């Protein structure tokens, strides 16, 4: 038996070389438009994640994208060949497949019977498999297994300290404080899955690494709207940071907790957390930006301006406080200053569609519709699923009587809207001139969230229904004189 | 086997000894030959070599061998040694050992009366034991 193990080890390549091998095969398959079925064998999750991060970076450099497929016992993906036939990847995409074992033995049969689909669809796939999975594939899906292009082995099981070190590096991989704005919900889920797996793999006493994984995980949960998990993760990060004496992470955790409380509208708690973060590191710009955001939310604009300015002073290249400052100026009707701040935010981070959307709104206030349209279009270019930007485009085109473009963007908004997002349905129907429907949705929205009433009274999306007496019935008021004129016109 | 290879690639792209080694490694099985060549070429490209050489066939051998090793028990090894030494005309305990044929650890040849041998990728290991 010892002989077998040594023979296996002989053919394992160093991790970097193994990854380069995979990249080479995938690049060539892409260039010649051929199928390629690669298997990456691993024993430790940390080694796998390290190889995966390296491979993804190399593929991105080569202009290729990665789509991850997690096999589950009940999911459609368990019949992977058929699923790939129904959801064919574009030519620039490499599929990463995980957890095949979760759908054994069915997945094995599907792979074996429908193996031709891989060649027909010319898919480029990397299967991340444990040795036991590879064994079952060879044994129970032999015809599919014979199709394999290459098996690369990443079998190193690093000692606990090394695993912790790798995991710490991976916790921050592709990280810049917040998730990238262009990341889709699926990508956020992938980042969450990576960290959850690493946490499972790490020994309990790898405190520093666990703390950093929990910290970044919390921000990702929060981005997904999973606030309970975000709070518990960030609290765990805080506890671990205190235990290992990592003051920077401790500060980050208080800041992170502040962000979650801010999202939940727990403004007093958020202020307390940001202030604690500032106490721990008065030179960090993030908690000042957070405080600015809370003060903006509660309408304390002077305090918000002071905090945003302090954040900028501490980190002149930080885009978010410029955006925040822009929003305060917007609320104060200082639209030229708002535009200058949004433009500065864009200059510092041209990848955030939200900055362009805000810029568009400021232009609208100054009746510079053409510039607003350009800004909104840029927002949708950066984030094609940006619902509010599509609605804003619809509204602006309606104001300019450009109905063809209105139809295009309202259709896109229609496809993006969740069925229970009654308020935005009301906006969309109002923009499209469907007053009855708009008011129906608005009624539902206000029953659920009466706080929206004040905004509804001045929301530019609803300007076409505010002339209708029934609008005022819905918001529980009488039609004001000014709106009567609009109604009669 | 040689004509199969040359119908798909230029003769000048593989060292003659490497081709010889590839044919031996395939055990005369077409599917295995296709796999050996595919894997060896991939390795040659990784090395940025102009020709497929002996080291590429060695890589292909490891690609065939390692998955097989994961499937074999110590008991299987004893049987494989016996098959290698005797090239039997029938597989010992066929019902029990058909699995070894199925995974191509043992190959069945039909030139004349059927006889059996071990997959060439495993031979070095068995000899080393």
Helical stretch tally of chain A: 27
End-to-end separation of chain B? 30 Å
| Gross morphology of chain A | globular
Determine and state the CATH class of the domain at 2-157 in chain A.
Alpha Beta
- The termini of chain A sit apart by 90 Å
- The CATH superfamily label of the domain at 2-157 in chain A reads P-loop containing nucleotide triphosphate hydrolases
Q: What is the tally of beta strands of chain B?
A: 2
The order of strands across the largest sheet of chain A is: 2-3-4-1-5
- What CATH architecture label of the domain at 2-157 in chain A applies? 3-Layer(aba) Sandwich
Main β-sheet description of chain B: 2 strands, antiparallel
Shape of chain B, please? elongated
For the residues shown, what is the average pLDDT of chain A?
A: 90
DSSP, total strands of chain A: 5
Uncertain residue ranges of chain A: 1-10
Determine the number of helices of chain B (DSSP H or I, runs of at least 4 residues). Answer: 7
Order of SSEs of chain B, N→C? HHHHHHEEH
Helix content of chain A: 55-70%
Could you give the order of strands across the largest sheet of chain B? 1-2
> What fraction strand of chain B?
5-15%
């Amino acid at each position: 038996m010892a002989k077998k193990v040594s023979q296996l080890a002989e053919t394992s390549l160093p991790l970097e070389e193994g990854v380069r091998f995979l990249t080479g095969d995938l690049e060539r398959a892409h260039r010649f438009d051929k199928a390629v079925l690669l298997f990456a064998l691993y024993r430790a999750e940390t080694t796998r994640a390290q190889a995966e991060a390296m491979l993804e970076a190399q593929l991105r450099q080569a202009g290729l994208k990665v789509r991850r497929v997690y096999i589950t016992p009940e999911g459609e993906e368990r019949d992977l060949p058929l699923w790939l036939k129904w959801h064919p990847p574009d030519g620039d995409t490499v599929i990463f497949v995980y957890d095949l074992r979760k759908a054994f033995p069915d997945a094995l049969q599907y792979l074996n019977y429908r193996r031709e689909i891989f060649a027909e669809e010319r898919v480029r796939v990397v299967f991340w498999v444990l040795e036991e999975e590879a064994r079952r594939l060879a044994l129970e899906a032999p015809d599919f297994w014979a199709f394999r292009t290459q098996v690369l082995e990443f079998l190193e099981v690093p000692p606990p300290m090394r695993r912790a070190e790798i995991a710490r590096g991976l916790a921050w991989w592709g990280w810049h404080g917040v998730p990238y704005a262009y990341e889709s919900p699926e990508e956020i889920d992938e980042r969450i899955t990576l960290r959850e797996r690493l946490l499972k793999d790490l020994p309990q006493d790898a405190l520093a690494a666990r703390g950093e994984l929990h910290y970044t995980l919390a921000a990702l949960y929060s981005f997904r709207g999973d606030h309970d998990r975000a709070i518990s993760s960030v609290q765990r990060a805080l506890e671990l940071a205190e235990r290992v004496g990592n003051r920077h992470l401790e500060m980050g955790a208080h800041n992170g907790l502040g962000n979650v409380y801010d999202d939940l509208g727990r403004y007093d708690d958020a202020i307390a957390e940001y202030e604690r973060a500032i106490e721990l590191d008065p030179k960090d710009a993030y908690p000042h930006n957070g405080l600015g955001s809370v003060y903006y939310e509660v309408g304390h604009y002077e305090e918000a301006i002071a905090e945003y300015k302090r954040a900028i002073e501490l980190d002149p290249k930080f885009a978010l406080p410029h955006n925040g400052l822009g929003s305060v100026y917007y609320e104060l009707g200082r639209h030229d200053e708002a535009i200058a701040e949004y433009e500065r935010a864009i200059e510092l981070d041209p990848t955030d569609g939200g900055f362009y959307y805000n810029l568009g709104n400021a232009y609208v206030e100054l009746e510079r519709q053409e510039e607003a349209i350009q800004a909104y279009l840029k927002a949708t270019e950066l984030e094609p699923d940006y619902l509010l930007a599509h609605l804003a485009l619809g509204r602006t085109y309606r104001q300019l009587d450009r109905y063809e473009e209105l139809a295009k963007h309202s259709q896109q908004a229609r496809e993006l809207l969740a069925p229970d997002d009654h308020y935005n349905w009301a906006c969309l129907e109002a923009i499209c001139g469907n007053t009855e429907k708009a008011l129906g949705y608005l009624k539902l929205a206000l029953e659920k969230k009466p706080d929206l009433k004040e905004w509804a009274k001045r929301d530019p999306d609803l300007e076409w229904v505010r002339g209708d007496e029934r609008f005022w019935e819905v918001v529980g008021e009488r039609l004001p004189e000014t709106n009567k004129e609009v109604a009669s016109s | 086997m040689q004509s199969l290879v040359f119908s798909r690639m230029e003769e000048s792209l593989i060292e003659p000894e490497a081709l010889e080694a590839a044919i031996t490694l395939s055990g005369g099985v077409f599917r295995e030959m296709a796999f050996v060549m595919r894997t060896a070429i991939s390795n040659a490209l990784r090395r940025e070599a102009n020709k497929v050489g002996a080291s590429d066939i060695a890589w292909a051998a490891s690609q065939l061998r390692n998955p097989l090793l994961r499937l074999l028990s110590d008991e299987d090894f004893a049987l494989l040694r016996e098959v290698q030494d005797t090239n039997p005309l029938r597989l010992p305990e066929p019902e029990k050992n058909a699995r070894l044929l199925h995974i191509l650890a043992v190959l069945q040849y039909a030139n004349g009366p059927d006889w059996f041998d071990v997959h060439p990728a495993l031979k070095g290991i068995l000899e080393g034991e």
